[in-house]
Specification:
- The chain has 553 residues and is mostly loops.
- Among the domains are: 102 residues, Pectate Lyase C-like (3 Solenoid), CATH 2.160.20; 84 residues, no CATH class.
- Helix content is 7%, strand content 7%.
- It contains five helices and nine strands; from the N terminus they run αββββααββαββαβ.
- Strands 5-6-7-8-9 form a five-stranded mixed β-sheet.
- The chain is rod-shaped and about 110 Å long.
- 56% of the residues are buried.
Length: 553
């Protein structure tokens, strides 16, 4: 039933009772353009028409405003908390600094309205905020699920946690449409944006720490210099987004789509990027220390000057990548594909490269001190001038590898494969060559070592076979080198006798070149024997022509 009350009657009561019109029922009242500043309204305003009304500072606390028309109304500083606004129309109204806390905003239209500095604390309902001005609005614990903020301005808006009945309540924007919205400098920490649409929105310098953005759409969104510390972005779509300078420390980006994303100078320390799509992403000068990137295909990522210490890249595909001068110290690169990758001057100190594929990779001048390359595949790779001090290359495939001038001091090369490898100028002091495969003693003639001790250790290790326990335990083999001439000293221990046939077997295992002439000394029972100068092509025959030699070599 339409109210018969007129604007004249309302104004009369308003003036007579000092702005108090709470005794009036304004249901279905038609009062467009009425001026009632600071009025105290009653509860019944359902379906009333207050369009264009001048109502600054009015009190509508707990009022029933269902389906009320308040378009273009001036409600600056109005108190509308706990009101029922279901289906109301407040489009293009001015609600600046108003209090809408705990109000029911289901199906309310705020399209084009100005809510700057308003309080939407604990409001609920999927309202229409299209193109509304919500800058500096406080959304403390608000429930705005499925609301529409398309094209709205929420710069400097806040979403602080609020305690309700002893529990912290988060602002909920789940399923909300923020497409094209302006969220610049908004403080939206801890808010829920599950499956929200923020495509093409501007969230530059926004604070979204610990926000829940799972399955959210952030295509072409600007998050430049924003803070997303600890944010949950699992399976979010950030393709084409701008995150340069953003802080995503400890953020969860597992299975997210970051194709074509600009993350230049961003911080991704300890971030989870497992199974994340990074096709064409720009990660130059990005801090990825401690990040989880295992199993990812990173072949199209730009890593120029990025920092990746302690990063988990196990099983990642980095084939053919330009990784020059990158800091990968302490990183986990187990079974990673680095085939043909350029790691010149890269810092791989302490990195775990077990089982990694490094075939044809370039590691010139790389720092591989104490790195673990056990079982790695490094055939045809280049380690020129690389530092492999105390590195573990046990069983590694170094066939045809170039180790010229590399530092192999105290390196573990047990059972490594060295066929046709280049060791020119390589430093091999105290290097463990036990049971290496394919290495010739003559390959070591141009290496750098302590000639009085180290070459002897190398010769012994090269000759020692895995199953030759008797040889390993009971004979000491030493050697010295002068140019192309190698002098070998074989001395039995624990009263073992030196068998000529055993010596022949040892020398066969040494792969000594047939070029050049060598001396062989056999020490047995305090006597010293010396062979003639000999050609190793006839070694087996000449071993039985041992002559007495009374002096130590």
């Amino acid at each position: 039933m339409t109210s018969s009350i007129s604007a004249v009657e309302v104004l009369a009561v308003y003036q007579r009772q000092s702005n108090d019109i709470s005794t009036l029922s304004l249901q279905d009242a038609s009062l467009p353009g009425i001026s009632l500043p600071w009025a105290n309204f009653g509860r019944d305003l359902q379906k009333s028409d207050l369009s264009g009304a001048y109502l600054p500072g009015v009190s509508m606390i707990g009022s029933d405003l269902r389906e009320a028309i308040l378009t273009r109304a001036w409600l600056y500083g109005a108190h509308i908390c706990q009101a029922n606004l279901r289906g109301a129309d407040l489009s293009q109204s001015n609600l600046e600094c108003s209090d809408l806390s705990r109000a029911d905003l289901h199906s309310v239209s705020f399209q084009g309205a100005n809510l700057q500095g308003a309080s939407l604390k604990l409001v609920k309902g999927a309202a229409n905020f299209r193109r509304a001005n919500l800058s500096s609005v406080s959304f403390d614990g608000a429930n705005c699920r499925e609301a529409d903020f398309q094209g709205a301005t929420l710069s400097l808006a806040t979403t602080p946690l609020i305690e309700v009945q002893g529990e912290l309540k988060r602002t909920d924007f789940s399923g909300t449409n923020f497409q094209g919205a302006n969220l610049a400098k908004a403080c939206l920490s801890n808010a829920l944006f599950i499956r929200a649409n923020l495509a093409c929105s501007n969230a530059a310098n926004a604070i979204l720490n610990h926000a829940d953005l799972r399955w959210a759409v952030l295509r072409q969104t600007s998050l430049r210099d924003s803070s997303l510390i600890g944010a949950d972005l699992q399976e979010a779509d950030l393709s084409g987004a701008v995150l340069s300078g953003a802080c995503l420390e400890r953020a969860n980006l597992a299975r997210a789509n970051l194709s074509g994303v600009n993350l230049r100078q961003a911080v991704l320390r300890n971030a989870n990027l497992q199974q994340t799509k990074l096709n064409g992403a720009n990660l130059s000068q990005t801090d990825l220390s401690g990040a989880q990137l295992m199993g990812n295909d990173l072949r199209e990522v730009i890593f120029a000057n990025a920092s990746l210490p302690q990063t988990n890249l196990a099983g990642a595909n980095l084939a053919g990548m330009d990784l020059r001068s990158l800091d990968l110290s302490g990183s986990d690169l187990r079974e990673a594909n680095l085939q043909r990758a350029n790691l010149t001057k890269a810092n791989l100190k302490g990195a775990d490269l077990r089982g990694a594929i490094l075939n044809q990779a370039i590691l010139n001048f790389a720092d591989l001190r104490e790195a673990n390359l056990c079982g790695s595949h490094c055939s045809q790779s280049s380690f020129k001038d690389a530092n492999l001090w105390r590195a573990n290359l046990e069983t590694a495939d170094l066939n045809h590898a170039d180790l010229s001038f590399a530092n192999l001091r105290q390196t573990n090369l047990i059972e490594a494969h060295f066929q046709e490898a280049s060791l020119y100028g390589t430093e091999v002091t105290r290097t463990d060559f036990t049971a290496v495969r394919g290495l010739k003693v003559t390959d070591l003639q141009y290496t750098q070592q302590n000639r009085s001790e180290t070459i002897a250790e190398i010769a012994y290790q090269v000759w020692k076979c895995k199953n030759e326990n008797v040889l390993a335990q009971n004979y000491v083999i030493k050697a010295t080198q002068d140019g192309n001439q190698i002098t070998l000293v074989i001395e039995p221990q624990n009263e073992y006798k030196t068998e000529p046939i055993l010596i022949a077997k040892i020398l066969d295992q040494s792969h000594l070149s047939s070029k050049g002439r060598h001396k062989i000394y056999i020490l047995s029972e305090n006597h010293h024997y010396q062979t003639h100068w000999m050609d190793f092509r006839r070694i087996r025959e000449q071993l039985f022509q041992i002559k007495f030699h009374s002096k130590k070599p």
